[in-house]
Amino acid sequence: MQENEQVGQVRLQKFLARAGVASRRACEKIIEAGRVSVNGCVVTELGTKVDPSVDEVSLDGALVCQPNQAVTLMLNKPAGFLTSMKDPQGRPCVAELVPCDEIPGLYPLGRLDYDTTGLLLFSTDGELGNAVLHPSRHVDKTYHALVKGTPSEKALDRLRHGVELEDGMTQPAAVSLIRRKGGNAFVEITIHEGRKRQVKRMLEAVGHPVLRLHRESFGPLELGSLPEGKYRVLSSQEVAALERAAR
Ligand code: URA
Predict the structure, then answer these.
(1) Does the CB atom of residue 200 touch ligand 1 within 6 A?
(2) What pLDDT band is residue 100 in, cutting at 50, 70 and 90?
(3) Which of 3-7, 89-93, 96-100 comes out lowest in average pLDDT?
């Protein structure tokens, strides 16, 4: 490591060379030619340092990854996309929205329905995927649902304590009414199970079918201001927090 590189940081030309782009000298020329960007900004300064666990480096617009570096990212999934890498019927798939050509082995962690929007995680780390999705790990997922009608406090209580679905009782959930919208209402619901169409089935069971569903958070991770249809790579601190939540 160069003396002036901080722990975790590496010079841009070294980062590119490690990723197999070209020799370090040739990478310097590539940088000077303005073909490399860091977090979306073109960088031509050879002394620039990057943190491979946090910074997104692109060459000619394509993401550059370090060998053997696991990548985990979050996507703000729009409605009208299947949570799948490919659909035999040719419907739009979330794979079109993430850099799966540049990052082989990137897979969604769990699924959101075709019409559900919000936070969907992807990772190349199968172990992390198994950990966060395992039902025994109880990772909280928070959704905002626009539902038909306005649920009474009694209906919200039923959701909190568990409702009978065709595949059994649901576990306790945190539920609150956010606000009314016309004759309908927004409900926030946090569950740690991950059964198929669970939130929709729970709300339907108490007489308030879901009109729109959006996932706000997954464990310690929040969507924040990430625009719809966009993704961002998680920092090593975020991945560590996710691992802790799944422990
Ligand atoms: N629950 C649902 O009903 N649908 C989703 O997409 C996610 C959770």
Answers:
(1) yes
(2) confident
(3) 3-7
CB neighbour burial string for 133-163, b if at least 16 within 10 angstroms, e if fewer: eeeeeebebbbbbbbeebbeeebbebbeeeb
Q: What does the mean pLDDT of the chain come to?
A: 91
Q: What is the pLDDT of residue 2?
A: 38
Beta bridge partners of 189: 143, 175
How large is the average pLDDT for residues 62-82? Answer: 89
How far apart are the C-alpha atoms of 167 and 83, rounded to whole Å? 22
List, in sequence order, every beta strand (DSSP E) within the chain. Answer: 10-11, 36-38, 41-42, 49-50, 57-59, 62-63, 72-77, 107-109, 117-123, 141-147, 164-165, 168-169, 174-181, 184-191, 210-218, 221-222, 231-233
Ligand 1 binding pocket mutation candidate from 198, 201, 211, 216 (most atoms within 8 A of CB): 198
pLDDT of 3 > 50? The answer is no
Pocket probe mutation, ligand 1, options 115, 195, 199, 216, max atoms within 8 Å of Cβ: 199
Range 111-116 average pLDDT: 97
Ligand 1 centroid from CA 88, angstroms = 22
Atom number in ligand 1 closest to CA 197 = 3
* Cβ of residue 213 lying under 6 Å from some atom of ligand 1: yes
Percent share of the chain, pLDDT over 90: 70
Q: Is 199 in the pocket of ligand 1 (CB under 6 A)?
A: yes
